[in-house]
């Protein structure tokens, strides 16, 4: 299972990530897949959330989202693999300054 990176915002649900409600889609508003519920119920073997933001992205910083997913699987048998946006690290990706830094992806991998 490879869901969207933000399950829910803390402002909407106390179990959510500390991300602004304006930052993006969530399971309760657009995606309608309660992946946290699936993790807690133990019906997944693994989960690969799409954490496609840079470390300095203000609306969804990589560290906040990756840490949230790590906490979500803690105490379960569900394995966590963070989805990386390697396409953003190329010349053909979006023009976000963070992805021009050759250390962005290696730093994210070290964070994991």
Automatic annotation (TrEMBL):
All copies of domain Glycosyl hydrolase-like, residue ranges: 2-90
Recorded superkingdom: Bacteria
Any Pfam family matching the protein: GHL10
Ranges of Basic and acidic residues composition bias in the record: 7-16
UniProt feature, compositional bias: Low complexity: 17-27
Positions of the UniProt region annotated as Disordered: 1-27
Protein name: Glycosyl hydrolase-like 10 domain-containing protein
Organism of this sequence: Leifsonia xyli subsp. xyli
């Amino acid at each position: 299972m490879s869901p969207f990176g933000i399950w829910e915002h803390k402002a909407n649900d106390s179990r959510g990530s500390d991300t602004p409600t304006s930052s993006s889609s969530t399971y309760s508003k657009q995606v309608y897949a309660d992946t946290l519920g699936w993790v807690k119920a133990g019906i997944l073997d693994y989960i690969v959330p799409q954490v496609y933001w840079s470390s300095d992205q203000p609306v969804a910083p990589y560290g906040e989202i990756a840490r949230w997913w790590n906490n979500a699987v803690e105490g379960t048998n569900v394995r966590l693999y963070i989805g990386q946006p390697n396409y953003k690290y190329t010349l053909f990706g979006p023009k976000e300054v963070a992805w021009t830094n050759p250390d962005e992806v290696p730093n994210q991998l070290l964070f994991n």
